[in-house]
Write a structure and sequence with these properties.
heterodimer, A: about 200 residues, mainly alpha, disordered C terminus, B: about 750 residues, alpha/beta, N-terminal domain of TfIIb, Rossmann fold, Dimethylsulfoxide Reductase, domain 2, 4 domains, 7-stranded mixed β-sheet, 6-stranded mixed barrel, 25 helices, 28 strands, about 20% strand, globular, binds iron/sulfur cluster
């Protein structure tokens, strides 16, 4: 059992135990009135704990490619990524194992603690929008891709540093003024090329 | 507090829902970092002939961002030049007002003053020298509507065929090669062929630097399928060559020997497709040979063992690539200036087509010859509109009476208006401007005083000719010879159509106003027409009106793109001609039945540009270049482009990120030659030819073949074209920038 699963199970066990304990305290005459007064506060703490743990579950789960693949909207991107024939940036990173696991998340998290939280909140926002159906197809990336997602791996490599314009554009790249994708293209299929597959989807689930 | 179990669960659930619900409120959770642009508009990169689609981001009426268009053929990819397009409108040194030369100095003037001066010069020169005393020198960077209008104004309005431009310097040999072999200009293939090819034959093309987005596409294809082979032929070990499976480095000026030797091998080893040749080709030899037996005799002189040594390569290399070319499932040839800028440029183009025709590597997905175009609108703007001295629009020729008659009818001018004598081609034109045969010229969107070969000779002589230059930048070298300078709009400051390599026409809409008093080149031409009393002829005066006229004109030709309405161009990511009706999707592969609407029904392939629908296999003999190495000039100079700079650098050299990346122009010298001359990198050296000399730093590398020096022409302060020889191809009249005999001298500090 990995650490993540252990945390999840332990967390739920603690919450459950807390709820039972709280009920016992409130109903029993054995405990002093001070405890009886504190016990209901648990009902404020518990929802927060549930959310934290639930979201932790969502956040951790959302790092897996299989979770992106389950989403009807994102499936075409993931489908393309796992297609060995595809030449998109995402597919080449996947096929060549340039990123060995959590491929979607690795490129869609922003580095650093804040970035990671932000990326997870982005994912959470997507989940809510998806669940409520408050989106229109084809989905379009409207923001600015954070170059740090690329630079974190490519910066310092011989290939990257060997391109003169990477040096002269360094400030623009670091500040996202020029996006890596401006030259290297949209990493996923364009709206016309997107499709939902079946066979591979199943194999990844 | 007494709570039931049910109430406890409800409370927990509601709490969770409440907090989660916050996420749906706008702004409560952060979204992606905001884009700079408020609105996005589709457009085209204004640089090279790849013609990448771009999305242009505007905020407060200014271009703030440019990215690749994922719906265009380039699938959102751009090279570094394209990625810096957003900088263009803000570049320094823009011309804001017209200038007139007074007492030797260019001084500010009003538009009326400047245009009156230009119109007066045109009128007086016409009176003095007749129509042939006038000239127009255009560009593959003008919009189609602008080139079309200039062509009509000069050839039908002023009865002057001295209409040429910088495409003469870059694509003329390819154009003449297509016309000779297939009867019509422009390639039959398309970019999509890259995804089907199993062998790429790149000759005289440094695509890594000059057509980067296409080269990336080739590399992707290669990575996708390990069987795909890349053959690169270049006297320089370019970055393109670094990716080759087979790299051959012949001496400059010898590659017709190589192509003929390949055909020799194909004939000898039975690698040709006799049935294809019989059905679709005609053989034509200079000595009268008209069949395969005659071809065999002709190519007997080109056995690899006989010619390889003259090229400085091994015979086995020729045999190997001949086999790969012929036997690959689908071979795609790509070439550009290394083939075109040659005194045998047309012959080289013919012979490249021969390779495809003789092996049947043509008119199938992935099997095609595809000449890479240098400038963004050399194809659509100049070649297709016939804005060259020997052409009329849509592939018609000035020297053919029937062609002149059709064009006169379409342009609604009296029969006999168009002069039957072709005008001066670029090299002759500047000579004529120097010797008084041409007394007044309009130069638009071009910088010939940096890009013509044997530059010094031209610059000294043209000073007596009245020259008006329409140009966006104040520091273009051509302004030095101008009597009047007109500030012109750049890129999205005006509107027009660009036509790139694969016959794709794309619309660029006007998004911002030009700075100062700058005007579009179309507006300048319309104004000139009015002042010359030709407003009736130039009645189409807006980009859309000119396009409609030209579109309808095309319906009478094999270029038929009358289905490309302005409305369609506004919506679609370009369309490929032929496209004869408004519901036609455009033609990917020309001459192929089922794809090209002009192929007769029931035919799989038809080279309909020729009356018998057969392509011609011309047997072209090798002749040494006029520039031979001697004791006085023991090396060859060859010139070209670098990745970060566009042509004469007038635009790109002002973008600091590009300028710093390219550095200054320098001489790239082979290690052995450097050793012999005791030269190290960074040292100043002088390169001298029979035509001129230039001193700049040396860069010692194993790039150029021993005996070869390379230099780029982007640097306006280091004019390598002052050293380059002025010889040109007798058919295409394209100069041979690639071969000049030189010597190398060490400059002592
Ligand atoms: S310069 Fe050429 S390859 Fe580069 S972005 Fe522009 S059109 Fe594309």
């Amino acid at each position: 059992m990995d650490i993540v699963t252990t945390i999840k199970i332990a967390g739920f066990a603690v919450i459950l135990a807390g709820m039972v304990l709280c009920l016992i305290i409130m109903r029993s005459d054995y405990y002093s009135p001070v405890y009886k007064r504190i016990a209901p506060l648990t009902f404020l703490v518990l929802p927060v704990l549930v959310i934290v743990l639930g979201n932790y579950h969502v956040f951790e789960g959302s790092q897996k490619v299989s979770s992106c693949l389950r989403c009807h909207v994102m499936a075409p991107m993931a489908m393309d990524m796992i297609n060995p024939e595809s030449t998109t940036l995402a597919a080449r990173h996947y096929k060549n194992r340039w990123i060995a696991k959590k491929q979607c998340f690795t490129c869609h998290k922003d580095y650093g603690l804040n970035g990671t939280i932000k990326a997870k909140l982005d994912g959470f926002r997507h989940l809510v929008k998806y669940s409520l159906g408050s989106y229109t197809l084809p989905v379009r990336f409207r923001g600015r891709f954070n170059n740090q997602n690329c630079l974190e791996c490519h910066r310092g490599t011989q290939k990257f540093e060997g391109i003169k314009s990477h040096h002269t554009l360094r400030e623009r790249l670091e500040s996202n003024k020029t996006n890596c994708t401006h030259c290297h293209g949209f990493p996923h299929p364009n709206p016309i090329e997107r499709h939902h597959g079946e066979a591979q989807t199943v194999s990844l689930k | 507090m007494d709570l039931t179990r049910r109430e406890v669960l409800k409370l927990c659930g509601m709490g969770a829902l409440g907090v989660s619900g916050l996420a749906t409120l706008p702004g409560c959770l952060p979204s992606n970092s905001p884009a700079l642009a408020e609105t996005w508009h589709k457009g085209v990169c204004r640089f090279c002939g790849v013609g990448c689609g771009v999305m242009i981001g505007l905020r407060d009426g200014k271009v703030v961002e440019v990215k690749g268009d994922d719906l265009a053929h380039n699938k959102a990819k751009l090279c570094v030049k394209g990625s810096m397009l957003a900088e263009l409108p803000g570049l320094p040194n823009r011309l804001l007002h017209p200038l007139i030369r007074k007492n030797g100095k260019l001084t500010q003037a009003s538009w009326d003053e400047a245009m009156t001066r230009v119109a007066d010069a045109f009128q007086s020169t016409r009176q003095k020298l007749g129509p042939t005393g006038l000239a127009f020198y255009g560009s593959g960077q003008l919009y189609t509507q602008e080139s079309y209008t200039a062509n009509k104004l000069f050839k039908a309005g002023l009865k002057c065929n001295n209409v040429d431009g910088n495409p003469r310097l870059c694509m003329a040999s390819a154009a003449v090669g297509y016309v000779q072999t297939y009867g019509k200009d422009e390639p039959m293939g398309c970019y999509e062929d890259i995804e089907h090819a199993t062998c790429f034959f790149l000759i005289g093309a440094n695509a890594y630097e000059c057509h980067p987005v296409l080269f990336e596409r080739i590399l992707l294809r290669k990575r996708q399928d390990k069987r795909v082979k890349l053959i690169v032929i270049d006297p320089r070990r370019t970055k393109t060559a670094g990716y080759a499976d087979h790299f051959i480095q012949p001496l400059p000026g010898t590659d017709l020997l190589l192509l003929n030797a390949m055909i020799h091998v194909m004939l000898e080893d039975g690698l040709i497709q006799r049935d294809f040749i019989a059905e679709h080709c005609r053989i034509s030899g200079d000595g009268g040979a008209s069949d395969l037996a005659g071809s065999q005799d002709f190519y007997a002189d080109y056995a690899p063992e006989k010619v390889a040594e003259r090229m400085g390569i091994a015979p086995s290399q020729i045999r190997e690539i001949a086999y790969l070319f012929a036997r690959s499932e689908a071979t795609m040839s790509l070439w550009t200036m290394g083939i075109n800028q040659r005194t045998q440029g047309t012959y080289l183009n013919n012979t490249l087509h021969n390779l495809h025709l003789m092996t049947g590597q043509i008119c199938r997905p992935g099997a095609t010859p595809l000449s890479l175009t240098g400038q963004g609108n050399a194809c659509g703007g100049v070649r297709d509109t016939g804005t060259l001295s020997h052409l009329l629009p849509a592939g018609r020729l000035i020297k053919k009476p029937a062609h002149r008659a059709i064009v006169e009818k379409l342009w609604k001018v009296a029969p006999g208006t168009i002069s039957p004598k072709p005008g001066f081609h670029a090299m002759e034109l500047f000579k004529a401007m120097g010797d008084g045969r041409v007394g007044c010229a309009l130069i638009m969107a071009s910088n010939p005083m940096q890009t013509l070969p044997n530059l010094r000779a031209f610059r000294e002589k043209v000073k007596d000719c009245f020259i008006c230059v329409a140009e966006p930048f104040a520091d273009a070298r051509t302004l030095e010879i101008a009597d009047v300078v007109l500030p012109s709009a750049l890129w999205v400051e005006k509107e027009g159509v660009y036509g790139q390599t694969e016959r794709r026409y794309q619309l660029l809409e006007k998004l911002i106003d030009p700075p100062g008093e700058a005007r579009s080149d179309l507006d300048i031409l319309v104004d000139l027409a009015k002042r010359l009393g030709l407003a009736d002829l130039i009645s189409a005066q807006t980009p859309e009106a000119v396009w409609d006229e030209w579109r309808q004109f095309s319906a009478t030709s094999k270029y038929n793109f009358s289905g490309m309405t302005y409305d369609r161009l506004r919506k679609e990511r370009g369309l490929q001609w032929p496209c004869p009706t408004e519901d036609h999707p455009g033609t990917k592969r020309r001459f192929v039945g089922g794809d090209d609407p002009l192929v007769p029904k029931g035919k799989k392939i038809s080279f309909y540009g020729k009356p018998d629908h057969k392509a011609v296999i011309y047997l072209r003999p090798y002749e040494p270049t006029p520039e031979s190495r001697s004791k006085a000039f023991p090396l060859f100079l060859t010139t070209g482009r670098v990745l970060e700079q566009w042509h004469s650098g007038t635009i790109t050299d002002k973008v600091p990120e590009l300028s710093r990346a390219s550095g200054r122009a320098r001489f790239e010298i082979n290690l052995q030659d450097a050793h012999r001359h005791d030269i190290v990198s960074g040292q100043r050296v002088r390169v001298v030819s029979a035509f001129g000399e230039l001193t700049m730093e040396a860069f010692v590398s194993d790039g150029p073949k021993a005996g070869v020096i390379f230099a780029s022409f982007f640097d306006s302060k280091r004019l390598i074209n002052e050293v380059v020889a002025p010889h040109f191809d007798p058919f295409s009249k394209q100069p041979e920038f690639k071969v000049t005999a030189v010597r190398l001298e060490k400059v002592l500090a």
